Structure formats: structure tokens, C-alpha cells
Amino acid sequence: MSDQEAKLSTENMEDKKEGEYVKLKVIGQDIPMNLLRFLLEGQRIADNHTPKELEMEEEDGVEVYQEQTRGHSRI
């Protein structure tokens, strides 16, 4: 990362309030967002929840699952 890129990155961070939101980018999966489920400690997270509302700490992780639809087995 160049000095200029680092400076721009830092400037962008100064405009944001700490702990207000999480930015997520999923690449290479071609999965619509409405088929993904996000869970924190086994509880589903709504798309409008913030880390502060969820009382997340630095080491907390969010689990991501793809919803499975139309599944059945043949006998």
C-alpha cells in the first residue's frame, strides 16, 4: 500500500463513527444476499443491526450460511 493510499484510507476512517457499522464484501460466490444468513452466537442478525447494538467485542465473529431451498432426497 502506498503512502497516498494509506493516507486516503485513514482519512476515510476519520469520517466514520467508531463501532457504528460493519462493511462486508463477498466476492467470487455469485450468491444473492437474500440467500445468506448471518449468525452471532447462534442468533440470526438482521441487516440493520450494528455491532454496538449486538454488544460485539473485538474478537467476536459472525457466521455466514447459505440458505438451502428445494432440497429433498429420493428413496
TrEMBL record:
Residues 50-75 are annotated as: Disordered. The keyword GTP-binding does not apply. It comes from the Eukaryota. The keyword Transcription regulation does not apply. Keywords: Ubl conjugation pathway. Residues 20-68 form the Ubiquitin-like domain. It holds the Pfam family ubiquitin. InterPro entries: Ubiquitin-like_dom (IPR000626), Ubiquitin-like_domsf (IPR029071). PANTHER family: SMALL UBIQUITIN-RELATED MODIFIER (PTHR10562). Belongs to the ubiquitin family. SUMO subfamily. This is Ubiquitin-like domain-containing protein. It comes from Suricata suricatta.
